[in-house]
């Protein structure tokens, strides 16, 4: 009697058939986002450049003669417009200096351990989250008002006459409210830079007998430079576009005392309907902002390279 033995069978795997369809490369996946950015940023900018070469007023939209660079010439030669440019620089520069000083002091305070530090840090951020127009309303009606404001109440409590801040010191008032709004941003960036400072450097300086001022001057400040430059870059670009605080508090006045370039563009475009002049002012603002941004970015790159080189 014979038994049949089953022989092992071998199976060969068939490679899966290639999937049919369109194969998208990573570059092709980026193009929808690039197209969206081009349509939403570059097309409006080139339309603004186009309208800046025309005398175009919406009061008479049928008349739109080509005038070349006349709008730019009017902007750069009118003394009133030069005052507006000076207001823009003073507003941005004054706010930037104050936010760096107050934000640096707050960062040094928050870098220490004390009871309630987390609560203070949360309360500090809150003013940065308030919308610009709400900031203007709060400061105008609750703080700076000569009849019902907090500052007027403090002055009267010490026997002094209340001060009409928005009437007598309009630019200082606007700088104060924007400083209140942007100080948390500077404080958080500077605090991040401060927390990356190694403790052994501070301890070594103290063992060598360095005073607190010498620690700050020779260790903290050089380590802080990159964070300071980031604050300067980001705030400069943002402060050159301030509009809501001025619209809600002074409306650019008294006169043109607090009118900056963005509010000037708003007045020309939506109060006087002078689209040509407003477009030229917008183009100049973009060029001015880009020049500052490129200069500050190069300054940051140069400082970073020098720090890496020792």
UniProtKB/TrEMBL annotation:
Keywords: Cell membrane, Membrane, Transmembrane, Transmembrane helix, Transport. It is a multi-pass membrane protein. Gene3D superfamilies: MetI-like. Residues 85-296 form the ABC transmembrane type-1 domain. The chain crosses the membrane at residues 29-53, 84-111, 118-139, 171-191, 275-297. InterPro entries: MetI-like, MetI-like_sf. One of its GO terms (cellular component) is plasma membrane. Pfam families: BPD_transp_1. PROSITE patterns: ABC_TM1. It is found in: Cell membrane. One of its GO terms (biological process) is transmembrane transport. Belongs to the binding-protein-dependent transport system permease family. This is Binding-protein-dependent transport system inner membrane protein. It comes from Deinococcus aerius.
């Amino acid at each position: 009697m014979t038994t049949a033995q089953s022989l092992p069978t071998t199976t060969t795997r068939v490679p899966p058939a290639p999937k049919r369809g369109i194969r998208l490369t990573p570059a092709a996946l980026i193009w929808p986002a690039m197209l969206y950015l081009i349509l939403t940023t570059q097309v409006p900018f080139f339309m603004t450049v186009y309208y800046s070469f025309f005398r175009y007023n919406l009061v008479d939209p049928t008349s739109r003669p080509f005038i070349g660079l006349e709008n730019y010439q009017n902007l750069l030669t009118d003394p009133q417009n030069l005052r507006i440019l000076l207001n823009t620089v003073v507003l941005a520069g004054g706010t930037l200096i104050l936010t760096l000083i107050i934000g640096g002091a707050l960062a040094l305070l928050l870098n220490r351990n004390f009871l309630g530090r987390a609560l203070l840090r949360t309360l500090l951020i809150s003013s940065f989250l308030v919308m610009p127009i709400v900031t203007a309303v709060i400061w105008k009606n609750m703080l700076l008002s000569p009849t019902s404001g907090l500052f007027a109440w403090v002055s009267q409590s010490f026997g002094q006459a209340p001060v009409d801040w928005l009437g007598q010191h309009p630019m200082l008032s606007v700088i104060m409210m924007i400083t209140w709004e942007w100080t948390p941003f500077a404080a958080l960036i500077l605090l991040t830079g401060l927390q990356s400072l190694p403790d052994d450097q501070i301890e070594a300086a103290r063992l060598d007998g360095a005073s607190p001022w010498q620690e700050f001057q020779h260790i903290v400040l050089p380590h802080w430079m990159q964070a300071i430059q980031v604050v300067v870059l980001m705030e400069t670009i943002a402060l050159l576009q301030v509009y809501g605080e001025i619209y809600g508090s002074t409306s650019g006045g008294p006169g043109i005392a607090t009118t900056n370039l963005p509010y000037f563009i708003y007045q020309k475009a939506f109060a006087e309907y002078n689209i040509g002049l407003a477009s030229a002012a917008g183009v100049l603002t973009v060029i001015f902002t880009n020049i500052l941004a490129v200069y500050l970015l190069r300054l940051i790159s140069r400082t970073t390279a020098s720090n890496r080189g020792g």
